Amino acid sequence: MSSDGVGITARGITARGPLGPVFENVDVTVEPGELATVAGPSGTGRTSLLLALSGRLRTVAGRIEVGGHKLPRHSKKARQLVVPALLRPGFELERCWRVREAVRERRVTSRIGNTDVSEAFALVGIDPEPEALIGSLHPGERLLLAVALGAAASPAGLLVDDVELGLPAAARVRVWTALKAVSATGTTVLVSTTDPPSFAAGPVIRLPRSDGDSEEEPRHDTRPDIATPFELEQLRGTGLVSPTTPVPGNGPEQPDLFSLVEDAPGSDEKPGPGGGDTAQFPGSEQSGPESDEDGRAR
């Protein structure tokens, strides 16, 4: 497995929603093949920044280039270069599927073969049982399965959201080791987490709280809205969530936050594979002929 990677630069980028800035005045420099970490407390716009840096979310200020392609004019090209392995919510492995079903789906959508999958599994250090339900896997192995399936096609860039969510210390070390191995193949890896890894892993983009609250945040997010049954049981044992917190998937289906938007006017690119998965903020309004979408995102 090998990739040429992709460089990503951003200067002074800002995204805003109805309640104010999601993130603002952020600078980013990521070289091809680096493992870059977006770090900050929950609610600081980590996922939104990953989306913006991959051409999936419009900003209201600043400039972004992905592999020399300026956004938003060339957002489709950016989306083809930088693909998601895991984005919460909206792009996760179906927990009701079996491993073999997820592999088969990715072989069709990403045009990869069994050899690519086997090499990706070996790269991140997993060997899942094909008949195992994805929802029954340990959270760390489930995350690595998503990373492996994303990396199997040797993309130029890979997005991995909330890499430490719900993981014990040993699993976190294993995940970071695997992500470093993926970047060593040349793929640029962009991840988000509450805190960056303790070892030198590449550039770190720190997002501060926007409300001025200086209270210490827990090291790992405790978000019952996206927790698995396994994670909920662990959280209930700590008293951090109510015993009546519903298990995701047992209630009404949640809306997909990753709805489609068009590239900037004047784009001369043709749609390609993966070129239509752009996110916009829910409840956006058009304020003018050249205005960007506003909205609220995590």
UniProtKB/TrEMBL annotation:
Membrane protein topology class: Peripheral membrane protein
Keyword ATP-binding: yes
Keyword set includes ATP-binding: yes
Residues covered by the ABC transporter domain: 8-235
Single GO MF annotation: ATP hydrolysis activity
UniProt GO cellular component terms: plasma membrane
Chief subcellular location: membrane
Protein family (similarity comment): Belongs to the ABC transporter superfamily.
GO annotation, biological process: response to antibiotic
Protein name: ABC transporter
Pfam families hit by this protein: ABC_tran
Species the sequence originates in: Actinopolyspora saharensis
Location in or out of the cell: Cell membrane
Region (Disordered): 193-298
Keywords: Antibiotic resistance, ATP-binding, Nucleotide-binding, Transport
Bias (Basic and acidic residues) ranges: 208-224
Matches recorded under PROSITE patterns: ABC_TRANSPORTER_2 (PS50893)
